[in-house]
Design goal:
By secondary structure, the chain is an alpha+beta fold. The chain has helices at 2-18, 28-39, 54-58, 62-76, 84-90, 140-148, 153-167, 172-183, 189-196, 206-218, 261-264, 266-269, 274-290, 300-304, 306-315, 353-358; strands at residues 43-47, 50-53, 103-106, 119-122, 129-132, 135-138, 224-230, 238-246, 252-258, 293-299, 331-340, 343-352. It has four domains: 2-59, no CATH class; 64-196, no CATH class; 209-315, 3-Layer(aba) Sandwich (Endonuclease, Chain A), CATH 3.40.960; 329-358, no CATH class. Helix 5 packs across helix 6, helix 6 packs antiparallel against helix 7 and helix 6 (140-148) packs across helix 9 (189-196). The termini are far apart. The strands form five sheets. A four-stranded mixed β-sheet has the order 7-8-9-10, with helices on both faces. The chain is 44% helix and 21% strand. The chain is globular and about 75 Å long.
Length: 364
């Protein structure tokens, strides 16, 4: 009997690892067996009633662990819909790591409404829900909106950048129109739009987005993103830089956000050793210098130290028009006509006051 139970639990855990989720017991006997294995250290229970092998759990990153929990909870509670940062994570957006450990769930009729340390419940209805990576979540636009109205400017900009990229949008106004139509009059809309209008889908990582947000907060001129710089010694070869400024005197400065991942992530090293990657980085930097581009390297930790980051940008001569009040500028609403199918409608559009001042009377 014990051998049968061991085999059954083994198959259950194997299935969980294949499906990238935690497992739960269907019977009291299996629950008792899982608890005994946990007491021996063979299993861990990251969430009440859910288990996984200790070795498998140790190999996961924090975002992966959150997704394993969500997949298990969706299997256990088919009616649950994850939202906010949890949904954004499932959609593959850049979300703050400190947020992923707390799961955000919509409270459906008849379900509990009380939040706990592990689960925050939101008493709102999902205007659109879908399955993404094995998790039942709010749709992409709703997930972006929920994050923008709650997160701070830096984290929110990372979500907005990655959200626009996931939607294939290169114009923030397209997404703004959709959010205004869906959420007009709701608290948090103006906050969301205030972040969204600085979004740029060309940012390739959350770190780059947060660095750009810090530049805005400090009042520095924004760079061009993901610019190709030709190799002066090899026609047809280009080196792409994260940020590029052209200074008033014509000189150029490239900003490069460094991280350990490029030296240790197999997908980025592509079979090369850390020494080989570092040698290629040095060659690349020498070619950029030969092309007349000064390279300014900084880490994510440098960005988080605003005083140091400010000094670094000043030392490289990055123009600084001044601390921008536009990050907190008021918005106002205007009615504009819109055609939808055979209907002619009038909708409200929220415009930044600074944009209205630059445009002719009557808007666009």
């Amino acid at each position: 009997m014990s051998r049968d139970a061991d085999q059954r639990i083994g198959k259950l855990l194997d299935a969980g690892e294949r499906e990238r989720r935690l497992v739960h017991a269907d019977t009291r006997a299996d629950a008792a067996k899982l608890q005994r294995l946990r007491a021996k250290g063979a299993l861990v229970s990251p969430h009440h009633g859910l288990y996984v092998r200790t070795s498998a759990w140790a190999a996961l990153t924090e975002p992966e662990r959150a997704l394993w929990k969500m997949r298990a909870l969706c299997a256990r509670h088919p009616g649950w819909v994850f939202c906010d940062v949890s949904a954004a994570l499932a959609h593959g957006l850049s979300v703050p790591l400190r947020e992923v450990g707390t799961l955000h769930v919509l409270s459906s009729p008849g379900s509990p409404t009380r939040s706990t340390g592990a689960i925050v419940r939101h008493a709102t209805s999902a205007r659109g829900a879908c399955w993404k990576d094995g998790v039942h979540v709010t749709d992409l636009a709703q997930s972006v909106y929920d994050c923008l109205r709650r997160l701070g400017f830096r984290d929110g900009l990372a979500v907005a950048d990655s959200g626009m990229a996931a939607m294939g949008l290169d114009d923030w106004e397209t997404l703004a129109d959709r959010l205004i139509a869906l959420h007009h009059g709701e608290p948090g809309l103006r906050r969301a739009l205030g972040i969204l209008r600085h979004a740029d889908p060309r940012a390739e990582s959350g770190g780059e987005s947060i660095a750009r947000a810090a530049m805005l907060e400090l009042g520095f001129e924004l760079p061009e993103l993901q610019v190709e710089v030709p190799d002066p010694f090899a026609p047809g070869r280009d080196y792409r830089v994260d940020f590029l400024w052209t200074l008033p005197d014509g000189n150029r400065v490239a900003g490069e956000l460094d991280g350990r991942e490029k030296y240790v992530n197999p997908q980025m090293t592509k079979g090369r050793s850390a020494i080989e990657v570092l040698a290629e980085e040095r060659l690349r930097e020498s070619r950029l210098s030969a092309a007349g581009v000064r390279v300014m390297r900084f880490s994510f930790a440098d960005v988080c130290r605003l005083g140091f980051f400010e000094s670094l940008l000043e030392r490289y001569g990055i123009p600084r028009p001044g601390r921008p009040s536009r990050l907190r500028s008021p918005f106002r609403e205007e009615w504009r006509p819109m055609e939808l199918g055979g209907w002619r409608l009038r909708c409200k559009r929220v415009w930044p006051r600074s944009r209205l001042a630059r445009e002719p009377e009557g808007g666009r």
